[in-house]
């Protein structure tokens, strides 16, 4: 677990550096998360450091048992209450925070940060390549429940990374960089190629 936690801390450090260089206008630009600007994505990433478990459970209950609805409400409320600088400071102060999503372990924490980091950088047109070591961990944890969560159907499809020794599934071959395939399996647009 120590190695994974180091990867999580490294990803968060990279995100802090990236966000520090953004203009105020960039914080208000849309991300790949539907309806969320970069600000809401950062609020969502840092929610785990600012919300106690009882507060999360109460919020989910008020949202009719739907985590995504609660998360949406929380991100909007937090961006109304917190400045960009406060959100960034929260991320900076929690680079080594031991948070992990329920049932997801530290691999889930890494996935969360990597995918949401891509939600921001890809939408902003920032040419950031997540280190392959981190992408490998995220892709290695891929399973049917993850695809279902993101609403992705890979029936009769084999994904094959062009820059990493990784593949998933069987059927029509879809190739792309590991990062682009990660975007694909998490329901985001990606540059991939279908081979006949």
UniProtKB/TrEMBL annotation:
The keyword Isomerase applies. Pfam families: MDMPI_N (PF11716). SUPFAM superfamilies: DinB/YfiT-like putative metalloenzymes. The keyword Isomerase applies. GO terms for molecular function: isomerase activity; metal ion binding. Gene3D superfamilies: dinb family like domain (1.20.120.450). This is Maleylpyruvate isomerase family mycothiol-dependent enzyme.
